[in-house]
Amino acid sequence: MLGVMHRASEGAALEGARLLILPELFLTGYHIGADRVRGLAQPADGPAAQAAAAIARRFGVAILYGYPEIAAARVHNSALLIERDGRTLANFRKLHLFGAIDGASFVPGDDPVVIAEIDGIKVGILICYDVEFPELVRGLALRGVDLIAVPTAQMQPYEFVPRTLIPARAYENSVFMAYANRCGREAELVYTGESCILGPDGADLARAGTGEEMIFATLDPALLARARVLNTYLADRRPGLYGALTERPA
Prior knowledge:
The protein has 8 helices and 12 strands.
C-alpha cells in the first residue's frame, strides 16, 4: 500500500493539497484476521513510517494514515500523522474498539486528546468508531481544535454515519471534519465509501461516492470564525450540570 500512498501523495501535491488523509488500517487492510494483523504490525517509527516520511518529503504533503502499531507486545489500531518535512507530528491509538474484528486484534488506546498543528490549523485525530462518541469530539473542540481528521473503515449498514452523524458533529462543535473511509469489499464486509469533508456549519465541502476517489477542500478560517459566532453551543455549556450524566445509573 506504500505504492498507493506514493501515487495519492503525488496526486494531492498536484492539486495543491497540504494534507492527505488515508483510511483506517490503510497499510494492511482492516478485516484480515488477528494473526495477520499482528504479523504485519510495526512500531510507530518502523520501516513503513520511514517510507511514509520519505513520501511526505518528496511531495511536500503531510500524511495521516492508519496502520497496526506494535508497542510493548501490544497491537493498537493507530493513525500516524507525518509533517511535510517527514517529522512525526502525532500518533493516535483507537480508543473504542468496534465489534469482534477490532476486539480480536487490538488493545484500545487511552489518550483521548491527540492534537497537532499544520499551517496554523489545529488538527485533532480520531479513528472510525471514536467519532461516534460525542464526548470525544466535544473534548477536542473545547481544546481549540479546528479540524478533526478521522481515518475510518465504515461498512454497511452504517451509511447514516457519514451522511448524518459526521455533519452533526461538525455543526454542534463548530469544527471542520474530514472523514476518510475505505470502499469496496473485504471478506464479507462492504465498505460504504462516502468520504467527506464538512464545514463547521455542517455543510459538505466535498463528498465522495461509494467508489475509490480523492476529494479536496480548502479550510477557510473565515468560515470557522463565522460559524463560531452564529453557533453558541460551546459558549452556552453548563459543565457543572453534566458530571453525573456521563455515568450510567445503577
